[in-house]
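batch_manifest entry 22 of 60
target: Ankyrin repeat and sterile alpha motif domain-containing protein 1B
source organism: Junco hyemalis
requested by: lab member K.T.
priority: normal
notes from requester: please return tokens only, no post-processing; we will run our own comparison against the previous entry in this batch. if the run fails, retry once and flag.
--- input ---
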Amino acid sequence: SIWRGPNINCTDSSGYTALHHAALNGHKDIVLKLLQYEASTNVADNKGYFPIHLAAWRGDVDIVKILIHHGPSHSRVNEQNNENETALHCAAQYGHSEVVAVLLEELTDPTIRNNKLETPLDLAALYGRLRVVKMIIKAYPNLMNCNTRKHTPLHLAARNGHKAVVQVLLEAGMDVSCQTEKGSALHEAALFGKVEVVRILLETGIDTNIKDSLGRTVLDILKEHPSQQSLQIAALLQEYMETGNASISEECPLECAEHQSCVLSPEVPPSPKAKSEAVTGELSKLLDEIKLCQEKEYSFEDLSHTLSDHYLENFSKVSEEDLMTSGSQTKLNVVSKMGYKDNVFSYI
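--- output ---
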């Protein structure tokens, strides 16, 4: 190989070619130059990822198009990595709708399932990628009937509380009472405390008597997991079964006795301002800890131990929608206030 000179498709320890690196980092001109010199788009890295997987994961629609249409070996859009995921899985999971559109136009097979038996539609529903969900079911409406006993897109969206996705799936004709081994979508929403999704499912007419593979109804599961949200959902279910109405007055009094169920009023969703203040407050606390550590010249290890898991958990609970609602201005205001404009977020 020394006498022949460097190979355009030589790989590093991760199995990456130069084309992998260029695609992953968005270097369009370098991708074109490598293809000009016969770089292969069909070399997989150690995890089975092709350059098109990396470009789709990044959401770079231009490089995805280049990899498909240029070079001596056109990228095969249905190539799967070691987890059996196509580029469409990667783009759908992260909500890259423009890449999804290109891949669908190139006849990528949306019925391919990964090692967890998830289709690209499943991943889009699971992570609340509303626009991608709409695109896929519009192009392939039959996908909503291609389900496994493990899950359906409706179950996955209900589990994570993605109300808009649940509504889109139901409006597109998905059976609200479709079942898996875990029961109905109502089982999933109730178990994970998604009150508003429960309300939507009830209003759509879901069968509350469906049982999971262990023979449990939704109320049976709620009894096994007593919490404020479980009690609230149980009250919703009881009201629905008695009156056919899936709404409870917010002024309903709390009546708790030793051998009685507690009936709680529905949670009022916080306003955008409240969400913004919550994000700002938690970030301020975290920055105070970092500042204190810097003043005391703590080591990085001390800094890591000092940061409370409480703060990290609170940040992990902030949804993508909450962050978009509060906006980037919240982060900028807090950072300016604390005086860490360059390196705070590298610590986080």
